[in-house]
Amino acid sequence: MADSAIPLLNGLAKQAGLVDRAKRAISHSHSYFRDAQHPDGYWWGEFGIEPHDGGRVPDAKSLPRTWPATPQISAQLTSAREFILSRGGVPKTRVFTKIWLALFGQWDWSGTPNLPPELILLPSWAPFNIYEFSSWARATIVPMSIILTERPYCPVPDDAGIDELYPHGHWTGSWSTKKQTVPGEAFSRRGFIRLLPLHHAGEDEFSDALNKGFDGFDSFAIEDEETCTVQACVSPVWDTCLAQVALLESGLAPDDPMVQSSTRWLVNNQILEEGDWSVRAKGNAARRLGFRVP
């Protein structure tokens, strides 16, 4: 769930000296998590689908550590722990969860994949290069390669750890001996991942970049008087195209005002400048529609 990035983002903001950014309504996100837990004990982003592993461990255990100690909260944490252990605990979670946990010393970095930053230097004609990946994957792989190489670590108090989620003690196996699932995360979380290498670099000149990153993440948040949650992604271009297809397939005439106005909107939002995406584009590379509004 992308929502777990809210408290993580606040911690990053405080360490980066961006005090104002640390004033997000974190209590509202806690309210959302308390209400969003499934009766079986897990938190999951896909409605009506049971998670295939231990759920979202950072969401299910690390975040609630900051909740007030009440009988209801204790019952929720106990339920979450039982569900996670029933699915094999931390060792059975997917690779992205393990990376989150390694950032806080709750998973051994040796149990994460190797992804050298030098990957960015491979030319487009190489059998394996950054341009073979989709746009969202490129924006994740590049900062993640820095994180996996530098292996930053933010220690947490002993009582904030998750040792109880290891069925057979703290696991220290290596990536080469364990099969991992392919990560696939929400786009808002991808934006958060971009901020980690900038913060880890520790350079003052990155403050503007960090602020812009926080602004981008804020644009995904939906907050009301009691709760705060985060949209996985915002995709008006894609959504408009799909809506057009649905309308036309249902019998709406091509000259209908809705079809005409949405077509004009799409034309006006074409990408007219070349970027990394154009490396693999053929024909008129500088005239494409992106996933989002450029």
TrEMBL record:
Q: Which InterPro entries match?
A: SQ_cyclase_C (IPR032696), SQ_cyclase_N (IPR032697), Squalene_cyclase (IPR018333), Terpenoid_cyclase/PrenylTrfase (IPR008930)
- Name the keywords, alphabetized: Repeat
Q: Which residues form the Squalene cyclase C-terminal domain?
A: 234-282
User: Which superkingdom does the taxonomy of this entry point to?
Assistant: Eukaryota
The answer to whether UniProt assigns keyword Repeat to this entry is: yes
**Record flagged with keyword Repeat:** yes
Q: Name the residues that span the membrane.
A: none
UniProt GO molecular function? intramolecular transferase activity
**CC per GO annotation:** lipid droplet
UniProt record, GO biological process:
triterpenoid biosynthetic process
Family annotation (Gene3D superfamilies): 1.50.10.20
Task: Give start and end of each Squalene cyclase N-terminal domain.
Answer: 75-226
Q: Report the family membership.
A: Belongs to the terpene cyclase/mutase family.
Q: What is this protein called?
A: Dammaradiene synthase
Top-down, what is the taxonomic lineage of the species of origin? Eukaryota, Metazoa, Porifera, Demospongiae, Heteroscleromorpha
